[in-house]
Amino acid sequence: MTALQQTLLPRRRIVSASLTAGAILVGLHVLVALLSLVWLPHDPTGMTGGRLAPPSWEHWAGTDRLGRDFFTQIMIGSRIALTVGIGAVAIGAAIGVTLGTLAAFATRLLDDALAATLDILIAFPTLLIAMLVVAASDTASLGTAILALGIALSAIVARLTRILVKRVLLMDYITAAYTSGTPWYGVVIFHVLPNVWPTLSVNFALQFGLAVIAEASLSYLGLGAPPPNASWGRLLQEAQGTVYTAPIGAIAPGLALVSLVIGVNLLADGLRDIADPTRKGGR
Amino acid sequence: MRGNDPMGGARYVALPYPRTTHILAYLLRRLAILILSLFIAAVILFVLLRLLPGDPANALLGVGATEAQIAAARAQVGSDQPLVVQFLAFIGNLARFDLGQSFVSKAGVLAEIGNRMSVTAPLTLLGFVVAIAIALPLGIVAGVRGDRWYGAAISVVSQLGIAIPVFWLGILIVTIFAINLKLFPSGGFPLKGWANFGEAAVAMVLPVLTVALVIAASLLRYVRSATQDVIGSDSIRTARALGSSFPEALVRHGLRNGAVPVISILGIELATTFLGAVVVEKVYALPGLGSMLLLAIQQRDYPNVQGVLFISTLLVLLIGFAADLLQRLVDPRLRGRSST
Asked: For the whole model, what pTM was predicted?
């Protein structure tokens, strides 16, 4: 392509439709979660209306079988979902990136051993690990669930990091950096991590969605955080029994969950397009 | 197949010894990894179950047990032994598939798992087959016709599908098909199990549909991207240049190339289906492995928890093993290589 052609072509749009839609959805959830810290429409534990009341001006999403306002609980659910997603991804990233980078730098034998261990850990299904950890600790709490999910995610992150770092280490600029006297930690900080970061951050966004779904599943199965924490999964589990009289309760928390996960996934798609200019717009 | 290869296999370095030797060597190496994986899985299981708070003996005791009762329970469970002794006994039992007895019902764990499998196995396998039946044609269409409205629509639906938790989809499906339309039961399974075939089959319809839709959504994305890669590949272009029609080129050269990444993902998807089944059992109150695990966790029934988790991991690892072998058989380029 000549320089002339390049200037004649329209500039590639950096902000894609999926990035915009994703940012709006995630932004909404973040706003609601922050708002729930300072203001709630009703007392989340108080019986503020009739039992299983349909949606009204007073109760936007109706009330549950104990007369508690559903919309209030869904707002709190937003906060819990974001906490779980951020917490689990932070733990998974901290452990995973460290392990993956070490494996890529390690000797052949150690690397093989780490790679095999990671494959096995990944074969251990996330949900089962989380169930086991939650079951084994006497008090099921949000922290336990976040820790369990974070550990489960770390194996996936570590495997991806290892592959990405190994690929980068073969590049000429790495050889150049070593030849010019950069120590190995300098290579990691200034050359390896910046080059694996785009792909990793997209993956973190996807893991965030997985963590939110996994926590909801745990809560649905009755293994999540105990009652004052209104996780969407627990709301859905409670509403399942009353789906005939109050279907909104079995629908609204699910919509909230799906909108957050789709938002994060769209955001990941948009970020990927920015991170990797060689990918052509469509997916 | 070499005779049919237009390039006569010249792309690959000639093997110094027969191809079967390579496959055998790979099989042995992969088998060693499988056994090692199982051992590590057993270690993880042991560590998680023993080192986390709460003595397994507590499950045998009521509130306010005396010191003597606690000691007796610990002796019975074996948790008074040193950890090394406990670990060796644990590994020895697993190796002989002796999973012990339930603390609560005193039934053999392996027998109970076998019992429960009569629900979970059909649910998993049927769900998986239906998912493939949905995802393969739709994924290929979405890949070939991504520029048309229906191709794009399929992509959007699959995006939606991976964001929906399986249990919520289950609740929605129950609400529509069982409560509003009253076409199928909202849950439960006949007491006699498959002996009451008609009722059992009807009870399986909605659970299978739920599992299948979720798996199909994620499978679809892989089929679509594999299709897109194949369409843009040199082999299709060459075949088209040599006069094949597009469908012919796709079937003769595309399928096998596209199958490789899809098969490797099928292993993971089958494992995911199995786990989805575990959650779906709760939605539909089915007496499968998932309900067994949940009940065991609530009752602190350690032998049952341990047994279900061990068998689940064994199945997941075996599925991965089979997928890797299948992948080698489909793609000759991978045959000489190691797995990492």
From this structure: 0.81
